[in-house]
Amino acid sequence: MIDQIIKKNIRLLSERYHHDVLYYEKVVAIKNEKNIIEIFSQIKDRVSITYNFEEGIEKVDIQDIEIYDLLIKIFRRKNLEKVNLSPGYPLNLADLEEEFGNLHRFEKELIALINTKTDYSFIGGNRVLTEFYKNILILRDDIGSSKSNVLNISNDKI
Predict the structure, then answer these.
(1) CA 16, CA 40: separation in Å to the nearest integer?
(2) DSSP alpha helices (H): ranges in 1-150?
């Protein structure tokens, strides 16, 4: 069973990249005019993801913490090519601290975005490209060595 926080993050991430999400008993379906993606819950923290590419359907079995990396790559692809997971660990708060130097200052900026009810802001970064979207942080590694990640500010175990 896919965790509720992960489902919420998937919904917000999909919305950010202009995809619709449908929830069924055993599958989460994501689609737009180009992409068709299905996420099936497997045992424990494993999921199976199928998505379309130019020559058919690709199936990938991954850990649930890798969902965001794969989805972001599918959402951002220009053509219908196959995508691969980045080799490293998912980006996290330690990477943000390394990127921005002072998490206290970063936290103040986040609080300002939340207090002004801002839906979207590209926060920036050199290596860790950071976006704020409806109380989630979308972290992408500009050089592709670490996996992209989504942190839910309101209720995630960060």
Answers:
(1) 21
(2) 4-16, 67-76, 93-100, 103-115
17 Cβ partners below 8 Å, 6+ apart? 72, 75, 76
Q: How many residues comprise the chain?
A: 158
Give one DSSP letter per residue of 113-141, joined into a string.
Answer: HHHTT-SEEEEE-SSEEEEEETTEEEEEE
Cα separation values, 132 from 3, 74, 94, 115, Å: 21, 19, 17, 13
Dump pLDDT digits (tens) for 108-152: 999 999 999 999 999 999 999 999 999 999 999 999 999 999 999
Beta-ladder partners of 62:
47
Cα separation, 6 vs 151, in Å, equals: 10
For 91, which DSSP code?
A: P
The tokens for 92 are: 């996290």
Tokens of 1: 């069973």
Q: Are 69 and 148 in contact (CB under 8 A)?
A: yes
Measured distance CA(34)–CA(92) in Å, rounded: 30
Give the integer Cα–Cα distance in Å for 61 and 103: 34
pLDDT tens figures, 40-60: 999 889 999 999 999 999 999
